[in-house]
Amino acid sequence: MIKLETKSIEARTIAVMGGTYGNVPALRAALADAEKVGCDTFAFIGDSIGCCGHSDEIVELIRTSFSTLVAGNHEQQAAAGELTCGCGYSSPEDERISCLAFAYANQSLSETQREWLGTWPDLVLLHVGDHSLLLVHGSPNETSEFIYESEVRDEQIGEWLAKYKVEGIVGTHTGLTWHRELPNAGWMANCGAIGKPDHDGDTAVHYGIVKVAENGLRFQLRRVEYNHLDWTTQLEAEGVDEIFISPLRTGIWTCGLESLPEWERNVRGKKDILAE
User: Fold this and answer.
1) Average pLDDT for residues 214-218, to the nearest whole number?
2) Which of 23, 88, 129, 249 could form a disulfide with 144 if both were Cys (CB 3.0 to 4.6 A apart)?
3) Which residues contact 104 (CB under 8 A, 6 or more apart)?
4) What CATH number corresponds to the domain at position 183?
5) How far apart are CA 227 and CA 177, in angstroms?
6) In which element (H, E) is residue 244 found?
7) What's residue 267's pLDDT?
8) What is the tally of structural domains in the chain?
9) Domain encompassing residue 178
């Protein structure tokens, strides 16, 4: 059964982040950026731990920085004591490599933090004044469902918006940023990942901002640079496999590619990324 949390908040600008995978300096940079642009509420939508290790460190940073939490497959699997990531890749090889990343996460995760991860809900329905927003990890239907920009239909998005009576939906899981406004009303977006770049040759990472405007909730993407080269050097010294370090250094993925639709696998560059 899906665990849905409903909460009312007072906010004007909500930072939505996901997919840190243990990347501590990237999360610190994203939090600093969000504070700089005036975000007054912080939501994390899953997959805190992963290939970079540093699990207790990243989980503690999330515990102290975010007031709204949504479980990703990494949280769910860790809380259940599983040794696999439960990512849901269509390619067995992609799933195998992701499970290796999950093994790095388990090495540095204490039982105290593991138990706390198990308290996170699967979905959060946020009421912000007269507006409503749904936060998910994969999709409203399933935590590990991949929602790709090239495949998801407007009709499906509209059905989810209507079911939960919300203006917008924000997810992560794929790690690929996108934002779609429906012709009539409402929108869905992927805020990207903090722990790894888009598969586009740019080493920066991304998160989303939801702004409360007079005419409704508005979504924007933020691009954040951090000292990725020092971080990759540290991970190398710590013995992390090169297959997980290379994307941080180059902005090009080394795993997960076989499961991507053709458009996401081959198209480089993303639009509507905001930076200052």
Assistant:
1) 91
2) 88
3) 22, 50, 51, 52, 53, 240, 244
4) 3.60.21.10
5) 21
6) helix 242-250
7) 63
8) 1
9) 4-274
